Amino acid sequence: MKTLIYLSFLILCTATTSAEENQPELNLDNKDINAADIFSISGFYSLGINHNDSQTSYIRDLSQSRTNHGQTSATTDSRVGVQLLADFTPQWSAALQVTAREGVDYANGDAVDWAFLRYRPNENWSIRAGRLSVDMFMLSDFRNVGYTYPWVRPVQDFYGLIPFFQYNGADIQYRQQLGDGEIKLKGNMGRISTTLRSGVGDFRVHGDQLASASLEWSDEHFHLRSSIGQMNLQGKVPGSDLLSNGLAQLSPFWPSANQIQQDLKINGRLKFLLLGASYDNGPWWLQGEWGRVHSETAIYGHMEGAYISAAYRIDAFQPYITLSQAKSKNAPYRAPLPKGPLPPPLAAASQALAAGANQFLGSLYTDQQTYSIGIRWDFHPRMALKFQYDRIHAADGGKGLWDNGNAQAGPLKANIFSLSFDGLF
């Protein structure tokens, strides 16, 4: 309900402003707005509906709740965003972007994607401070802007596992012409806070001491990108205190209980490496990304995801195909049981606590592959209609993007049918 209220409010405000401003263009490439006007407002929207034939809720990424989605959902892919730009001088500018979507933690301000001040001393250098997009992906700045990519949603096997959208901090970028293209080097520092939703509940995660760097090169047809970084993850899994207290009581009889208590805590370093490339010559469009996340926290573990997608434009139509995979690289968590014989009550208690720890710490374990086909129809210069079909295979125990705590045992096979209407205003 809260999401629908935000969506309705933003649509009403932006529709009124759009009429007054004669539909200004959405700024999607970080260029300065028209110097004749100090302020400019624009926005984007996606109205989507999807149906899946499994008994488990389908989510777009780990920021979305497992319990708010039925087999047919109109909230998974629906969102609306408003962007306000201010160009004070040729050197100084600012930007604010707010997005209403299902799963966003409004109470913690996660609906604010951008709120930064930018200083450009010359054509090559740019410094920004405030709230910024997490600089990891090919779609870092446009993840919520469905009009900018051919699919209904960013590839779930890649983008779904990393629900980090924004951070508070600063970045510095250097750009320079190199041959027929342009090279960009960017460094970022700050702090991430996001709400992660797993099969055992929702919990707030903080990424302190975020430090990352990205390198990009692009020309008329190619775009190459790499990013590397790290942060210190901190958080608390809901209900873990009950498990931890029970483990503490059994620790005199169960030496491994102390280690399991430590594993239940979210407190450790997370490192990431991501690579991406795209090619666009007009008719043909190709894009792929690969990423690896290495975490010292047991619940997140080590994950790897990749996809490759191809599309071909035929007038206003763009059919496409995508192959993707997401896999946790570490073994599923298994709490060690006491080695020696215990009295029956203690043995039963240790087995129950071990099973609870396994469920908690295995709730994000992922092993799935997806095959997708779809078509985009650009029936208007700023509007597109999309249809997409996904065939998803998730291994038993590898349903981290699906499991709501009540999923049936065994592997999962699901067919997802999606329709979306995307536009700019």
Automatic annotation (TrEMBL):
It comes from the Bacteria. The keyword Signal applies. InterPro entries: Porin_dom_sf. Keywords: Signal. Residues 1-19 form the signal peptide. This is Porin. The lineage of its organism: Bacteria, Pseudomonadati, Pseudomonadota, Betaproteobacteria, Neisseriales.
